[in-house]
Design brief:
- The chain is of the alpha+beta class.
- It has 14 helices and 18 strands.
- The two termini are 22 Å apart.
- The model is unreliable at 1-14 and 17-21 (pLDDT under 50).
């Protein structure tokens, strides 16, 4: 007898087979953007899906994400008279990444990304009316193609559009969602993936397993091993590399090694938390706020032109600095006359944080400032003196900085500590152009697929950040795999 709509059929804890004897067409591990897109698309095509999520609720990275999406040639662009297509989008990515992204996967994603945007918009996602736009927080595209919600962070608005689609399929019995289930192992039989094993020993079987478990930006030891960099993160606390570790134990190869690059600067976390305070981040985009400050390392030395317009270049030079940590150093006049130094803080609010918020310092002289911040005092005093001479001369022979508005000379003085921020992880499971996971020798593991950050963001970003190329490819690949597996099961 069929179960009533909206109820979950009784299942054998050992096999995942329901009371009618039917197995799901696929098991999807992870209910973030890639896993949700995969499950919903497969269910749209009539497939039965088992969706397992270790967190108490779905969403993955979405509750924490800025929610930037991009595509070349979709309705919001056409409405604003923007002429674009996937090929021009690809050329921009190739330029920004210096050709380091995988061409096969990038082109595959870009062909699907306009449909992802139309799908979300049709499902209730409302882009900010000021978008599509060019985002300068990453190396900019040449064409406006990035959209996000009006309210920031924008990830929750994407989740709000996906949730009713998920709920409808759950009510119809096509998606069996189980939250609070941590999958720890893949079932591998005769070299093929045939199911998964949960932490409590429960086993489920299906013809296909899709890993959509996200990255490892909240797992310091794995991050140190694979990216070889200090970790200050904006990743979700669930981003602990589960899928990557399971795949690696099953013999999967990795891709994206050596591609790591940090996002340029954020306040150090408080109280030992790994997560950066992304709502109060220093405003370091020179084209949006011409800098009054200088950037110094632990020795008190400048290391780049602070008005360098290329965030990409700043990020690359940052990797050469000790611990990728630097300080913005400025004075009372800069605080008063510059645009706000930190998003969300007025000048008075910034002053109030000095000595209270980790990494935010104020002192009556440069020597005292250096002592508070942990900067070499002699180096800082010498560098500020040298910089002030450049301001007086109207020329910076060290770094060719052009914006020299005023000397750093009016006390009190300020220093804001900045750390590299991990938005995405670059290493991931190696997949072929059908998103099938490959072994270290390049051979496919039958029945095993991966989508989203678990395949490594380098797959479509290369050694760079390309706007909207994390969430959108995750959903694009999820849709492609969900559609393909659903059709294969018919």
């Amino acid at each position: 007898m069929a179960s009533a709509p909206g109820t979950r059929p009784a299942r054998s804890p050992a096999t995942g087979v329901d009371a009618e004897g039917a197995r799901p067409a696929m098991i999807i591990v992870g209910a973030g953007p890639g896993g949700l897109a995969c499950a919903i698309t497969a269910a749209d095509a009539g497939a039965r899906v088992l969706l397992l999520e270790k967190a108490p609720d779905v969403g993955g990275a979405l509750p924490y994400s800025g929610g930037h999406l991009s595509a070349g040639g979709f309705s919001a662009q056409r409405e604003r008279g923007i002429d674009d297509d996937p090929e021009r989008h690809f050329e921009d990515i190739r330029r920004i990444s210096r050709g380091t992204a995988r061409e096969d996967l990038t082109r595959l994603s870009l062909r699907e990304q306009p449909a992802v945007l139309e799908w979300l918009i049709a499902s209730g996602f409302v882009p900010d009316p000021q978008t599509p736009r060019i985002v300068h927080g990453h190396e900019p595209y040449r064409t406006p193609r990035t959209v996000h919600a009006t309210a920031l962070p924008g990830g929750p608005a994407i989740l709000a559009a996906l949730r009713p689609l998920l709920d409808a399929h759950r009510a119809a019995g096509r998606i069996d969602l189980r939250c609070g289930v941590r999958v720890t192992e893949l079932l591998i039989e005769d070299g093929a993936a045939t199911g998964v094993i949960a932490e409590d020993g429960t086993r489920w079987r299906a013809p296909a397993v899709v890993l959509a478990t996200g990255g490892f930006g909240y797992e310091p030891e794995l991050f140190a091993e694979l990216e070889g960099a200090p970790l200050t993160t904006s990743a979700a606390p669930t981003s602990t590399g589960d899928g990557l570790l399971m795949g690696r134990r099953a013999g999967a190869g990795l891709q994206g090694s050596g591609m790591y690059i940090p996002t340029f600067g954020g306040l150090p976390p408080n109280d030992g938390d790994l997560r950066v305070d992304w709502s109060h981040r220093p405003q370091l985009v020179a084209v949006e706020r011409p800098p009054w400050e200088i950037y110094v390392d632990r020795r008190g030395r400048r290391w780049i032109a602070e008005d360098e317009p290329s965030i990409d270049r700043k990020e690359r030079v940052l990797t050469t600095i000790e611990q990728m940590t630097f300080w913005m150093v400025f004075d009372a006049r800069a605080l008063r006359e510059s645009q706000p130094m930190v998003h969300g803080w007025s000048p008075a609010e910034l002053v109030a944080q000095c000595g209270r918020r980790r990494g935010v310092h104020q002192a009556s002289d440069l020597a005292g400032l250096a002592e508070q911040a942990g900067i070499d005092a002699a180096g800082l005093i010498d560098e500020v003196t040298r910089y002030n001479l450049f301001v007086a001369a109207g020329r910076d022979p060290d770094f060719a900085r052009a914006h020299l508005p005023a000397p750093i000379a009016e006390p009190p003085y300020y220093a804001i500590e900045n750390h590299p921020v991990t938005l995405i992880t670059f290493v991931g499971l190696d997949v072929d152009a059908r998103l099938r996971v490959r072994r270290g020798d390049g051979q496919v593991i039958p029945g095993l697929y991966a989508v989203g950050e678990v395949i490594g963001s380098a797959a479509v970003n290369g050694n760079a950040f390309c706007s909207g190329m994390c969430l959108t490819p995750a959903m694009a690949f999820g849709r492609l795999v969900g559609r393909r597996l659903a059709m294969a099961g018919k």
